[in-house]
Every structure is written in C-alpha cells, then in structure tokens.
C-alpha cells in the first residue's frame, strides 16, 4: 500500500491523500483558516502552520508530491515546499513544475471514470511555454487520456499579464506552429480564462469575482435594477467564451473520434455555459471535473505520481 500526499501550493491551496490510486481524503486549507482562495503566505518572511497537516501527523508517506502554477521565481516554490516538509513525514518528495494543465486533466479523468476521454483544460494560466526571449502563459490545452496514458494534442498560450519581447512586442497577434508533435497557438490576445477575467475587470468586479459576472449574465433581458452596461459586458463574456469553447471542442474532435469529453480548469466553474455545451453537442458524453479550479490539481498530481512511479 503506497501512501501519497498531493499538494497544490497555488491559490486554493489543497491536499489530497491517496492510498495507491484511491483518493482517501481531500482538504483545502481555506476551509480551516477561513481565508477565501488561500494561497500560501511568503514563508521566506514567515513560516505558516497548516491546519490540514495536523490530520496527517501520524502518517509516514511514501511520497509527498507538489504542483503549482509556474511562478516567476522557483525559489518561492522551494520556500513553500520546505515549509510544508517540516510538517509532514515522508520517504520521498517530488515537485512537478510546468505540469499544471496535466494535473487539471488527471483530476477530471480520475473522477470521470472513462477509460478513454478527450480532456479540455481552460484556465487563467498555469503552465508556460518558454522561448529564448519570452515566455507565454498557457491558457488552453487538449489531451487524450486512454487507460491513464496521456497524449497532448494542443496548447494555446498568451503573453497577457507577462513580460514579453521580440515578435510579441509590437504587431504580431498570433503564431501557429507545431512542436514535439503538439500544435501550439501563441498570441498576444486574451484567451481562455483570461478573456473572462478581462471582462470581469471591465465590468468593475475584482479578480476572483468572475462567478459574479457569470451569475448576472442571466438577467440581461429581465427587469432589474442592475447596471445595463454591466449586464451587456456579462452577456458578451458568456457568449464569446461559449463560442470559444465550442470551437475548442470541435478542434479536439479533429484529433480523435472519441465521444467522451472531460472539461477541467477554472473556466468550467461556469455551469451555465457547461449546460449549453451539453445541449450543443448532444452526441457527446460530457463530464465536468467537480474540482476544476486549482484545488483539484492536488488530486491530479497524486494520481499521476502513483501511476507513473508505483503501479506495477
């Protein structure tokens, strides 16, 4: 019996305890400290005692495995990891850097129970595509997972929110290429979850309040005291990103005739548009990851690590 603790050290900091390939316990630290969207505080300045880890004080793990979004400085991740390792007992550790979208996909696959599925991840970022003079934040990915084996077909990345140079500095809006058998779209336009964030900020909401914008979109044609301009923005965000998701699903189907579709990544907290996708593609079998935001990557990383390292 292998005991694995998966740890997400980005926002929605979370912990997933697996025995072999079975999830036994899952916790998010913000349920204990009541800090919404909790992300570990900077342990370089002060160490943080995790309430969740008190539940595991008597367990010696075969591995503690970490995942995060790709930060500017890997030393910040190291400091978070070192702080957590002082509070658990383990025989081995592993930090998976730049695998963020894979672990969203593996979380959805774990819960979905399809043997074979196309997994679409739509996020506000997470992984990066590194080039000699710039790096772009990955917003969308398409995977095929067949009997727990992963094949990546496509990634779309944007420089929105990042420093960038050369061809992305001025007028180039999009580059399409293929690298190591994976189709890439590189752009300086907002895509994926970041497009929704842009509309959220435009409507006067704050980051992490995308859910409020999703919610009020339904009131566009109803009698309400809500600001009409805000309602227009909310409706536009829903309609545009829904069409983007339809096109992403169609792209996925161009790679494989698999009819099982798993949706993960923070965008797919959007229940209204998820339902519209199901109605638009009645011939497909949909499953929406129940923890599509970053918290779920703790499950994905632990499940992945067992399959790659311990399964006979």
User: What is the subunit arrangement here?
Assistant: single chain
Task: Kindly name the structural category.
Answer: alpha/beta
What's the CATH architecture of the largest domain?
Answer: 2-Layer Sandwich
Total helical segments? 8
Provide the number of structural domains. Answer: 2
User: Could you list the spans in which at least 5 consecutive residues all have pLDDT below 50?
Assistant: none
Instruction: Compute the separation of the termini in Å.
Output: 12 Å
Tell me the CATH topology of the largest domain. Nucleotidyltransferase, domain 5
Cα-based radius of gyration, to the nearest Å: 20 Å
Order of helices and strands: EEEHEEHEEHEEEEEEHHHEHEH
Q: Give the integer mean of the pLDDT values.
A: 90
Task: Tell me what you see in this structure.
It contains 8 helices and 15 strands. It has helices at 30-33, 74-85, 100-112, 192-202, 210-216, 228-255, 271-280, 297-309, and strands spanning 3-8, 14-19, 22-28, 60-61, 63-67, 89-90, 93-96, 116-122, 128-131, 134-146, 149-158, 174-179, 182-187, 260-264, 285-288. Strands 8, 9, 10, 11, 12, 13, 14 and 15 form an 8-stranded mixed beta sheet that branches. A hairpin with a 2-residue loop joins β12 and β13.
Would you kindly provide a brief summary of this structure?
With 312 residues, the chain is of the alpha/beta class. It is built from 8 helices and 15 strands.
List the helices and strands and how they pair.
Blueprint: E1 3-8, E2 14-19, E3 22-28, H1 30-33, E4 60-61, E5 63-67, H2 74-85, E6 89-90, E7 93-96, H3 100-112, E8 116-122, E9 128-131, E10 134-146, E11 149-158, E12 174-179, E13 182-187, H4 192-202, H5 210-216, H6 228-255, E14 260-264, H7 271-280, E15 285-288, H8 297-309
Parallel strand pairs: 1-5, 4-6, 5-7, 8-14, 11-13, 14-15
Antiparallel strand pairs: 1-2, 2-3, 8-10, 9-10, 10-11, 12-13
Helix pairs in contact: 3-8, 4-6, 5-6, 6-7
């Amino acid at each position: 019996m292998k005991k694995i603790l998966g740890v997400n050290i980005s926002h929605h900091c979370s912990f997933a305890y697996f025995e072999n390939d079975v999830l036994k316990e899952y916790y998010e630290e913000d349920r204990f400290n009541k800090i919404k969207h909790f992300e570990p505080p900077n342990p370089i300045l002060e160490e943080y005692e995790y309430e969740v880890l008190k539940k595991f004080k008597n367990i010696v793990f075969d591995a503690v495995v970490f995942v995060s979004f790709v930060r500017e400085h890997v030393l910040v991740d190291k400091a978070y990891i070192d702080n957590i390792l002082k509070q658990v007992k383990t025989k081995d550790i592993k930090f998976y850097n730049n695998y963020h979208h894979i672990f969203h996909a593996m979380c959805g696959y774990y819960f979905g129970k399809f043997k074979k599925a196309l997994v679409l991840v739509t996020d506000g970022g997470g992984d990066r595509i590194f080039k000699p003079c710039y790096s772009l934040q990955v917003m969308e990915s398409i995977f095929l997972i067949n009997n727990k084996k992963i094949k990546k077909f496509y990634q779309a990345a944007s420089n929105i929110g990042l420093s960038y140079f050369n061809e992305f500095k001025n007028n180039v809006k999009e580059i399409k290429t293929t690298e190591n058998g994976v189709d890439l779209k590189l752009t300086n336009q907002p895509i994926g979850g970041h497009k929704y964030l842009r509309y959220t900020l435009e409507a006067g909401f704050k980051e992490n309040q995308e859910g409020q914008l999703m919610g009020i979109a339904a009131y566009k044609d109803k009698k309400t005291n809500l600001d009409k301009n805000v309602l227009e923005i909310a409706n536009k965000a829903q309609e545009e990103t829904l069409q983007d998701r339809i096109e992403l699903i169609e792209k996925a189907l161009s790679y494989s005739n698999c009819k099982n579709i798993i949706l993960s990544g923070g965008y797919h907290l959007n229940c209204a548009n998820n339902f519209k996708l199901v109605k638009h593609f009645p011939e497909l079998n949909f499953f929406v990851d129940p923890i599509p935001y970053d918290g779920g990557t703790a499950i994905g990383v632990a499940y992945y690590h067992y399959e790659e390292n311990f399964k006979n």
